[in-house]
Design brief:
This protein is an alpha/beta fold and 504 residues long. It contains 15 helices and 13 strands.
Length: 504
């Protein structure tokens, strides 16, 4: 099969789009000279794509109705049984719907991708199935993962199991809701600005964003390579550590992975918090919308660590709010360039590309009006930075990110963990259908400044439930130096064992 060749007139139009001027004769000459390259394209077109093998049988599944889906958290149900034995034998898992599960539809929360069916499993899916897990299906996520609230997914809003009509958090909204509701033991979330930790905090479960590059992102639809993270959401610390033990490690296909350091995370559970040095992050309590009751609950949780033998003292880290500012051009220009203009895959990296996903997602251009309000404002800002400022703020933000990371690392020379509220508020009410644009955007992004700094620095960070305010969960965020997830689990497990988190 031959690829389509341009006419001389189309070559001239291409040149004009690149700021070049070609005469008719030059267009003809260039068109003829392009033929050798096009012949090479024909060879690539004729060669079969390299698609990773699928090891475990499954059925396409089905879209559950309201009776099976009271919180709106399931997108698709499809049971896939893994190996008969292994670390995850007997454990049930839900996948965020940006994770490829071969043969099962994936829409990543967006109608523009509806109908796409992956041909292969994400690396982490194969690892979980090899470890004996049973995958029960796909959890709803927010529209292309662009919301910290749970009201932007095209399948519909996800409700908080603690209170119907309230946000489950985003963008891994369904994942956290299904764990909180007890419908699965474990779930996979993604985190570019807080999308594991935000729903974990709102729903009262444990959500860990691992060190950048610890868990392979292969087979998961990217947003921006330098801030893409995927990780576990669970009902207990032990299950979180167990799942990370299965997920972690290089797969040789993901450019985010640079010599990840893997540990036996389950061994940290039960070691206790005695001797840990914990810095109470002052700036983490200073968010503009910080609810006093949330701050009080987290401070009470921190005090419990002192009773467990840890040393807790306040520390200031000026780089924390700077990181939140840096995140904006990295995330907004980066997602516009990679996820949207780059059709989900982008360029200039070695690894496993999903060509079918690239083809399917590229169709958004014909349905751009159907994109969510949260994605539209993100793209408008990102495109302005790319076109008006040539991407200089993205570049400068990446440079500044090294300074911010150095500031965090300096704090970790003194402290094993940094502790602060995961979010400045408890779950808010879901916007009503037809809510004003301002409300839709506010409810999506009002909390992200608290969690996005750790996406910029790449440090591991976990939301731990630590109390209730007006009957809704409060999250405490524990952050450690790179590759020190075990220290987070050590502290989180000690806190979990010290008493019911609902009564802190």
């Amino acid at each position: 099969m031959s690829i389509t060749r341009p006419t001389a007139e189309q070559v001239a139009a291409l040149a004009a789009g690149l700021g070049m001027t070609l005469s008719p004769d030059e267009a003809v000459a260039y068109r003829a000279l392009m033929e050798g390259a096009f012949a090479a394209y024909d060879i690539v077109d004729a060669a079969p794509d390299v698609v990773l093998p699928v090891k475990y049988p499954r059925m396409p599944g089905y879209r559950p109705g309201p009776d099976e889906n009271p919180y709106g958290a399931w997108y698709y149900k499809s049971e896939v049984k893994g190996a008969p034995s292994g670390k995850l034998a007997g454990k049930t898992v839900a996948l965020k719907d940006n994770v490829a599960l071969a043969g099962v539809p994936m829409m990543n929360g967006a109608a523009t991708l509806e109908g796409f069916v992956p041909a292969t499993d994400a690396t982490i899916v194969t690892r979980m199935l090899d470890a004996g897990a049973t995958i029960l299906g796909k959890a709803v996520c927010e529209h292309f993962c662009l919301s910290g609230g749970s009201h932007t997914s095209d399948p519909g809003p996800v409700h908080n199991p603690h209170r119907m009509g309230h946000s489950a958090g985003g963008s891994s909204s369904g994942s956290a809701a299904l764990v909180a509701a007890g419908e699965v033991d474990m779930a996979i979330g993604g985190d570019q600005g807080g999308s594991i930790r935000i729903p974990a905090a709102y729903c009262g479960v444990y959500g860990l964003k691992p060190t950048h590059g610890l868990v392979p992102y292969t087979g998961i639809m990217p947003i921006e390579t330098t801030i893409d993270h995927t990780g576990p959401i669970t009902a207990t610390v032990a299950d979180n550590a167990l799942l990370l033990e299965v997920l972690a490690g290089a797969d040789g296909l993901d450019p985010r992975q640079y010599a990840p350091q893997v540990s036996r995370y389950t061994e940290a559970v039960g070691q206790g918090a005695s001797g840990l040095r914990i810095g109470l992050l002052r700036e983490g309590f200073a968010a503009p919308i910080m609810q006093e009751a949330v701050a009080d609950a987290v401070r009470a949780a921190a005090a419990r660590f002192e009773g467990l033998g840890a040393r807790v003292e306040e520390v200031s880290l000026p780089e924390y709010p700077l990181a939140a500012a840096i995140w904006q051009p990295i995330a907004l220009e980066g997602l516009t360039q990679q996820m949207m203009l780059g059709n989900g895959m982008g360029f200039n990296w070695k690894g496993a590309y999903d060509v079918a996903l690239l083809d399917a997602h590229s169709a958004w251009r014909g349905r751009a009006d159907d994109l969510s309000e949260t994605l539209k404002i993100s793209m408008l800002i990102g495109q302005w930075g790319l076109t008006h400022y040539r991407g200089r703020y993205y570049a400068k933000a990446q440079n500044l990110a090294r300074r911010v990371k150095a500031g965090f690392d300096a704090a970790f020379a003194t402290y094993d963990l940094l502790l602060c509220p995961t979010l400045p508020c408890v779950a808010t009410k879901l916007p009503e259908a037809g809510a004003p644009l301002e409300e839709v955007i506010l409810r999506a992004f009002e909390m992200v400044a608290s969690t996005c700094p750790m996406d910029v620095t790449g440090h591991p960070s976990m939301s731990v439930p630590c109390g209730l305010v007006d009957g809704l969960p409060v999250g405490m965020m524990l952050t450690a130096r790179d590759w020190n997830e075990a220290t987070i689990y050590r502290a989180a497990a000690a806190f979990e064992a010290s008493g019911d988190w609902k009564t802190v």
